[in-house]
Specification:
GO biological process, one term: phenol-containing compound metabolic process
Number of domains: 2
Organism: Bombardia bombarda
Bound molecules: 2-acetamido-2-deoxy-beta-D-glucopyranose
Catalytic activity: an aryl sulfate + H2O = a phenol + sulfate + H(+)
Radius of gyration: 23 Å
Protein name: Arylsulfatase
Structural class: alpha/beta
Helix content: 25-40%
GO molecular function: arylsulfatase activity; glycosaminoglycan binding; N-acetylglucosamine-6-sulfatase activity
CATH architecture of the largest domain: 3-Layer(aba) Sandwich
Number of strands: 24
Length: about 600
């Protein structure tokens, strides 16, 4: 069961190899064609926050990336969990279209990535078809293990050196597996140092091959340290019993740093009143002992990130030495964000709050403005389209995202045409990764299944979500930047209006209909959802949709987003009405069904 589809994918290796030969551009040594495809270096950390200020402690990343490139301050992941987020990143698809929604089978992990057919349909494969050599080191996916790495091998890589489960998150006992070779244990060496050596080695290889290259580098910092055993997980209990979380472990030379640093004490840090909805709203305020431990956990994250900072410094030194900076784009991002103590949450991710979904993205490269901060809304789903465009390769009709404007003049040009929303979704459990304090503290919380959206423009800034138990959340981040007042909780008094003098319920109805489209959207509907509701094209954004002539359409006629039950994976029949079968559309002043 676990490896169904493996044989199909193994068969596809051949066609990948053939495609590579066909796509290869003959660039003889020394020949310098006028417009050589740019090289791309992609650095992907694990669980790095933007909102807990981790970037403030990384001087070399600041020097080489933020100061020399553009930071995308509204960059979002769409599922705040490593494996689903990475599969979405490399395929350009929302998790509801990959159906890789978890870290391990049956709903996720490397075996699910393979059985869904993506081992021959993801970014490195397409880049090879476009003439690139492709290199990767570090963590690719969860449940990519010392037992299944060759069943089949991950497709699309010219050379690879993967960090494998169950040793992925053991900072002092990493196991890597190079090309077709068996895994090697690096017991006693720090994972951050091992990966830096491997990254530099792959860069040397890429340069020697004298072809445009993509180099992916995925260190494990600042993820928590996890001592795990291999498990044939089918039940969250298996996961819980086979893993032990502790704070991340830095390299010796970084252990002494940041002794006085604490998690930023923002207004939503360990608040006096409960916040949010569902299980979050039931959390107890943390004791001083708990807060002290979490501050330690936070410092350990900053310390492990120092290894990444040094790796970035080392890379730029080599890129400069090889004289490649003029024709290389460097991306720096992470798979998902992280919270520690906000809304009383223990260290972890998997939530829809800004800490978990709004994450670092920095890009440096030819034509990219130095020291710029861009405020366009971008997501991980947009990265595969962006990189293919840089490679000069054709885009794909089934992408759920669209290329991110990178160069200054493209950025200045985008504001009105680009999407203003992010589709956020989650299935399954949330884990507390720190120490458990109190007798009733839980490592895993089930029913952490929800659909949500973020929508941001000059005039508005909302987070709206529906949970699988049908609780709702709405934050107006313009007036409540720390998401402390859930305007849809029965204990909160909702305001009379939310936006443009339009009644509260009427605005909420629009947000709900937008989520109704987004929660099962495919391809262009994911970037142009209003078009699905208004095919005439007269509504491009939330502002347009607020027109009072659409009140009935949104408030009275549309089906509402709801779940029939909580599931651990994407089972359509648990997820209530679907837009494709139950949605209404509006055209030229009349509902579509009155025209047709
Ligand atoms: C380190 O990893 C190797 C396998 O790569 C394993 O045999 C060994 O038991 C591990 N050591 C510890 C302390 O977990
Ligand atoms: C700016 O946008 C216009 C209209 O979409 C387009 O024709 C033009 O090529 C764009 N310019 C750049 C530099 O992207
Ligand atoms: C999870 O949701 C289901 C309904 O879908 C409910 O029966 C169950 O009690 C919930 N479990 C918890 C722990 O809240
Ligand atoms: C997603 O995968 C699960 C597990 O294999 C399966 O039960 C479910 O039907 C799939 N969902 C969709 C929408 O294909």
């Amino acid at each position: 069961m676990r490896f169904s589809g493996v044989t199909i994918a193994a068969g596809l290796h051949l066609s990948v190899a053939l495609a590579r030969d066909v796509g290869q551009k003959p660039l003889g040594a020394g020949s310098k064609p006028a417009a050589r495809q740019p090289n791309i270096v992609f650095i992907l950390t694990d669980d790095q926050d933007l909102h807990l200020q981790s970037l403030d402690y990384l001087p070399l990343i600041k020097k080489h990336l933020s100061s020399q490139g553009t930071s995308y301050k509204r960059h979002y992941c769409t599922t705040a969990l490593c494996c689903p987020s990475r599969v979405s990143l490399w395929t350009g698809k929302q998790a509801h279209n990959t159906n890789v929604t978890d870290v391990s089978p049956p709903y996720g992990g490397y075996p699910k990535f393979v059985s869904q057919g993506f081992n021959s349909a993801y970014l490195p494969v397409w880049l090879q078809e476009a003439g690139y050599n492709t290199y990767y080191t570090g963590k690719l996916f969860n449940a990519h293990t010392v037992a299944n790495y060759d069943a089949p091998h991950a497709g699309g890589w010219t050379a690879s050196d993967f960090l494998l489960d169950p040793y992925t998150y053991m900072y002092l006992n990493a196991s890597f597996q190079r090309n077709q070779d068996p895994p090697i244990s690096y017991e006693g060496q720090h994972s951050g140092d091992v990966i830096a050596d491997k990254a530099y080695g792959l860069l040397d290889e890429a340069v020697a091959a004298d072809k445009p290259f993509f180099l992916g580098i995925a260190p494990v910092a600042p993820h928590s340290n996890v001592k795990a055993t291999l498990f044939e997980g089918n039940h969250p209990g298996d996961f819980e019993n086979s893993v032990a979380f502790t704070a991340p472990i830095p390299a010796k030379r970084h252990e002494h740093l940041f002794k006085d640093v604490k998690v930023p004490r923002t207004p939503h840090f360990n608040p006096d009143e409960p916040q949010g909805a569902n299980w979050v709203r039931k959390l107890k305020q943390q004791s001083q002992e708990n807060v002290d431990y979490n501050d330690h956990f936070y410092r350990q994250r900053l310390r492990t990130l120092q290894s990444v900072d040094e790796l970035v410094g080392g890379l730029f030194k080599r890129l400069a030495k090889y004289n490649l900076l003029d024709n290389t784009f460097v991306f720096y991002t992470t798979d998902n964000g992280y919270h520690i103590g906000q809304h009383r949450l223990q260290p972890g991710k998997e939530c829809g709050f800004e800490e978990d979904i709004n994450i670092p993205l920095i890009v440096r490269g030819p034509g990219v403005a130095a020291g710029e901060v861009a405020d366009v809304v971008t997501t991980h789903i947009d990265l595969a389209p962006t990189i293919l465009e840089l490679a000069g390769a054709p885009s794909r009709a089934d992408f759920d995202g669209e290329a991110i404007p990178l160069r200054k003049e493209e950025l200045d040009n985008t504001t009105t045409l680009r999407h203003e929303h992010v589709t956020v979704e989650y299935w399954g459990f949330a884990a507390s990764e720190g120490k458990l304090f109190g007798d009733d503290a839980q490592r895993m919380v089930l029913n952490n299944t929800y659909k949500a959206l973020r929508i941001i423009s000059k005039g508005y800034n909302f987070y709206y979500s529906v949970w699988c138990n049908n609780e709702h959340e709405l934050y107006d981040l313009k007036t409540d930047p720390y998401q402390q007042r859930n305007l849809l909780h029965p204990d909160e008094k909702s305001p009379t209006t939310l936006l443009d003098g339009v009644a509260f319920d009427k605005v909420v109805a629009r947000l709900d209909s937008l989520l109704f489209v987004l929660k099962s959207c495919k391809a262009q509907t994911c970037t142009r959802p209003w078009q699905a509701l208004h095919p005439a094209g007269n509504v491009q954004n939330l502002h347009d949709a607020l027109a009072s002539r659409f009140d009935d359409f949104y408030v009275a006629e549309q089906k509402r987003v709801r779940y029939d039950r909580c599931e651990l994976g994407y089972l359509v029949d648990a997820e209530g009405p679907q837009f494709e079968t139950h949605g209404l559309v509006y055209r030229h002043g009349a509902r579509w069904d009155e025209w047709a």
